[in-house]
Recover the amino acids of this structure.
């Protein structure tokens, strides 16, 4: 009796528990076949599962909380049981079950196939959504570039300034012994030596010297490399270029009439193309100076042979030979007017102004890697300049040479006039028409009819006179031609 | 008398004042780099409102123009070009704070 009572109580308890569980299920399957656990719905309704289910009931009840989560931290025995369930459930795929609860377990064969169908691509978080300085690497690069540019500007500027000062310190004594005025920027009221260079740019420095016999003045221009511009510095790495010192002296009116140049072949070819006077007066190609003892690197452009003979005296040859590597070009001319001016409307109507000039272009040794001490090497070249100034004044062409020179200059002028003849005619014509129009307007504006009539008559008489004159001229030309 | 010594070539009575050469007669000798860079800088500043890298190039152009400029040139123009390029950069980032993407 007591045993029966106990059994009934147990049955009742189990019944109440399973009823609660049955509420979850909506299946119409036999209740007896469902086990009293969360996994009952996943189980196969087969004999194997029935026989094993009592085991499951005992073991899985303890782990109800863990079943919905990933299967981590469970007992090995549990896993063993689940594995059994896997194999069983793999057999009966038709059995409906919740896929989510067994991720990674029963879907091991399935996930591989599903991966082939639907690949999961893991995408990086876009850069602009990341909150880190690393994503702004391009901006940092840009700012670094700017800072590098500024640093190079400061360093380059300082280097050029030091080189200019070194040059001036080296040459100051020689210049002050030859010129009264050393250094002038043109702004002071009185002509006093400033004693310093004019800075035109971060890489160009000027110095004006004046007050010497045989010379009106000398402008020295130190054309350094653009060390302050990083782009230029990088470009120079491909193509080494030297700093240059240019000296332009305006000589006295006493200088005789000739055009002459000596320098490197490349420089002379360029000058011949660019310079007005060299292209007009020295039409031949640059000749080698070997005849006069010059090195092969130097060539000569001259208006006539006599000038070359006269210029290439011993001392000059000595200067040119010893310092050939530093000489770019030496250009003496009484017809110097600068480079050819390319005007859009055609030839200029007037010949450009000419000046008697000696131009010297020297290269600073070092090919760009110049140091202040290299400036001392240019001092002998300054002596050459001084010597040339004195020589240019003293040198005189003989009678033949002078005639030839005059003929050349007349020829150049004639050519120029011919070329511009048409333009000058047009200009004269337009001027005449303008005058006529002004006259007519004046007549029209005149209010007094009497005065108007008189002015008209006067204009008519003038025209008739002009026509008569023209006719006379034509007759004279015809007579001459006959 | 020492000043008029034969060995002394100096002549104080022959002093000529310095006259800066007019730039119109030698336009080819003048370096056009600062003017070109100024113009490029302004164009890139305008484009910089649409594209970030244009604004940065404009800043570089204004720096290059400044480095190559002549001392006689107006500093006001340099400053205005520089300010324009900086404002282009600032405005493009205010409008769109995302980092610049490389074109490749």
């Amino acid at each position: 009796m007591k045993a029966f009572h106990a059994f009934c109580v147990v049955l009742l308890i189990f019944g109440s528990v399973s009823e609660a569980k049955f509420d979850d299920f909506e299946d119409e399957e036999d209740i007896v076949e469902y086990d009293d656990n969360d996994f009952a719905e996943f189980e196969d309704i087969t004999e194997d599962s029935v026989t094993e289910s009592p085991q499951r009931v005992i073991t899985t009840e303890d782990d109800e909380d863990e079943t919905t989560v990933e299967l981590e931290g469970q007992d090995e025995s549990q896993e063993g049981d689940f594995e059994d369930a896997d194999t069983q459930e793999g057999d009966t795929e038709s059995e409906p079950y919740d896929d989510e609860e067994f991720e990674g377990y029963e879907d091991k064969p399935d996930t591989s196939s599903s991966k082939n169908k639907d690949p999961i691509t893991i995408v990086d978080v876009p850069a602009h959504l990341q909150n880190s300085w690393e994503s702004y690497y391009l901006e940092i690069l840009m700012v670094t570039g700017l800072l590098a540019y500024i640093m190079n500007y400061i360093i380059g500027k300082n280097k050029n300034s030091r080189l200019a000062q070194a040059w001036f310190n080296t040459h100051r004594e020689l210049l002050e012994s030859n010129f009264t005025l050393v250094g002038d920027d043109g702004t002071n009221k009185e002509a006093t030596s400033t004693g310093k260079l004019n800075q035109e740019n971060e890489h160009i420095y000027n110095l004006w010297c004046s007050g010497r016999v045989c010379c009106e003045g000398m402008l020295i221009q130190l054309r350094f490399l653009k060390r302050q511009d990083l782009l230029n510095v990088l470009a120079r790495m491909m193509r080494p270029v030297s700093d240059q010192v240019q000296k332009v002296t305006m000589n006295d009116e006493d200088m005789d009439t000739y055009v002459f140049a000596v320098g490197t072949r490349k420089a002379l070819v360029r000058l011949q193309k660019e310079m007005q006077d060299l292209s007009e007066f020295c039409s031949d190609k640059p000749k080698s100076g070997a005849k006069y003892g010059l090195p092969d690197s130097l060539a000569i452009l001259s208006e006539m042979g006599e000038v070359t003979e006269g210029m290439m005296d011993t001392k000059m040859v000595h200067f040119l030979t010893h310092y050939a590597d530093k000489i770019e070009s030496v250009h003496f001319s009484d017809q110097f007017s600068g480079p050819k001016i390319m005007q859009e409307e055609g030839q200029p109507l007037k010949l450009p102004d000419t000046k008697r000039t000696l131009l010297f272009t020297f290269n600073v040794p070092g090919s760009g890697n110049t140091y202040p001490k290299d400036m001392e090497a240019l001092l002998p070249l300054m002596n050459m300049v001084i010597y040339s100034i004195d020589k240019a004044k003293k040198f005189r062409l003989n009678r033949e040479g002078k005639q030839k020179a005059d003929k050349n200059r007349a020829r150049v002028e004639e050519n120029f006039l011919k070329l511009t003849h048409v333009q000058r005619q047009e200009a004269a014509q337009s001027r005449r028409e303008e005058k006529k129009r002004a006259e007519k307007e004046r007549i029209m504006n005149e209010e007094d009819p009497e005065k108007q009539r008189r002015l008209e008559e006067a204009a008519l008489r003038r025209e008739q006179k002009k026509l008569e004159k023209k006719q006379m001229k034509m007759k004279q030309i015809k007579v001459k031609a006959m | 008398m020492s000043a008029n010594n034969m060995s002394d070539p100096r002549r104080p009575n022959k002093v000529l004042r310095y006259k800066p050469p007019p730039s119109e007669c030698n336009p080819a000798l003048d370096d056009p780099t600062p003017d070109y860079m100024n113009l490029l800088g302004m164009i890139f500043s305008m484009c910089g409102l649409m594209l970030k890298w244009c604004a940065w190039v404009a800043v570089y152009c204004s720096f290059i123009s400044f480095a190559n400029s002549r001392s006689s040139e107006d500093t006001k123009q340099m400053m205005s070009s520089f300010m324009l390029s900086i404002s282009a950069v600032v405005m493009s980032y205010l409008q769109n704070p995302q980092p610049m993407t490389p074109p490749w």
Q: What stands out?
A: The radius of gyration of chain A is 52 Å. Chain A touches chain B at residues 127-128, 135-139, 142, 145-146, 149-150, 153, 177-181, 184-186, 191, 199-202, 208, 210-214, 216-217, 219, 226, 228-231, 338-339, 341-342, 390 (CB under 8 Å).
